[in-house]
Design brief:
binds nicotinamide-adenine-dinucleotide; 16% strand; Rossmann fold; alpha/beta; 327 residues; two-stranded parallel ribbon; 41% helix; 13 strands; single chain
Length: 327
């Protein structure tokens, strides 16, 4: 039985990863500053513990890393509204918090899995991206790049700590979605569309909707993430985690309407009207998944329609039960 420390363990990915480790019979310690709604089903679980504190606090990290066998660093400031609204917080938590986690893990000799992102590839047009692909980012005057920069800095810290003896795996996630994602109407595209869909309002597609993403169902991401922490060959590797099936944002909206039913239509809106002038979108975002398959032995097997149906069903049940949107 492992004791697994999950920073950001009360978040979307963290809560599902907690479920995954608990199902294996392991113990989970979640360290999180945020809402506890996504882990309320675990409150009384005998092998689950929540610590409400911050990765900005080295003392708590020291205590928890000493107790854990394995550390997953998922805590971070996520969501476009933060990249353009509070870049300081994004940079501070994602860079300095990561350094704190790595330092504590190194001190106690713990293996680390770091949650990085497909955003680090920026707008490199040469998809699919292998893990050694170039990072192509816009200027630092465009705030949206602060997230990609902060996560890339986190990766550099991981690699620097590796030289000091830390065993670390870097995972770059591609648009993971599923139940408990974000609050309706905020955060990522699936939850923004979801809020509109459940109200029967038009789904607001930014631009012409031809930009593509590879949507990865959360169970598939969790399988890869658990494997990354317990597979010897994953040590010291950078690995893309995601589906390599490309879907345009327009198609995503159309499929959500087809699966969810109701009167929603599509409404195309200018990018500036949503995120202001300080934003640049990425045209295509596609992983090369050969390392995930070869090293982690997992694949993103859930078809988009199935994952969307489960996700829409979950959000609909939450609403029907009168639970808060991000419950
Ligand atoms: N879901 C995805 O598609 C995706 C894609 C790329 C990367 N990631 C990365 O995976 C990780 C988890 O993402 P998620 O989708 O679960 O997002 P999330 O926002 O649901 O989870 C992040 C969690 O970190 C917590 N947190 C923020 N600041 C903290 C702090 N100072 N101390 C402790 N906890 C803090 C938040 O409260 C939240 O619960 C993030 O690091 C994110 O960058 C996710």
């Amino acid at each position: 039985m492992l004791t697994v420390l999950l920073t950001g363990g009360a978040g979307f990915l963290g809560s599902h990863l907690a479920d995954g480790f608990l199902a294996r019979g392991d113990r989970v310690i979640a360290l999180d500053t945020g809402s506890q709604k996504k882990i309320r089903h675990l409150r009384r679980h005998p092998r689950f513990r929540l610590v409400v504190d911050s990765v900005m606090n080295p003392d708590i990290l020291d205590v928890l890393a000493a107790r854990a066998d394995l550390v997953y660093h998922l805590a971070g400031i996520v969501g476009v509204e933060h990249y353009v609204g509070d870049p300081y917080e994004v940079l501070n938590v994602n860079v300095n918090g990561t350094q704190n986690v790595l330092r504590a893990a190194l001190k106690h000799g713990r293996r680390v899995v770091f949650a990085s992102t497909s955003e680090v590839y920026g707008k490199n047009p040469a998809v699919p991206w292998r893990e050694d692909a170039d990072r192509v980012l816009g200027p630092s005057t465009i705030d949206r790049w602060c997230y990609a920069t902060s996560k890339a800095a986190g990766e550099h810290f991981c690699l620097a700590f590796r030289r000091l003896g830390l065993v670390v795996t870097i995972l770059r996630y591609f648009n993971v979605y599923g139940p408990r994602l974000d609050q309706l109407d905020v955060g990522r595209v699936v939850t923004i569309f979801m809020g509109q869909l459940l109200r029967g309002a038009p789904l607001t597609v930014i631009g012409d909707g031809s930009q593509t993403r590879c949507f990865t169902y959360v169970q598939d991401a969790v399988a890869a993430t658990i494997a990354a922490g317990v597979t010897a060959a994953a040590a010291d590797q950078i690995i893309n985690v995601g589906s390599d099936v490309e879907t345009s944002i327009r198609e995503l909206a159309e499929r959500m309407i087809a699966i969810g039913g109701g009167p929603s239509t599509l409404r195309f809106v200018a990018q500036e009207s949503v995120y202001g002038a300080g934003y640049e979108d990425v045209a295509r975002r596609v992983p090369d998944v050969s390392r995930m398959t070869a090293i982690l032995g997992t694949r993103a097997v859930t078809p988009l329609d199935d994952g969307l149906a489960r996700t829409i069903g979950w959000f609909r049940r939450q609403r029907a039960d009168g639970a808060p949107d991000d419950a």
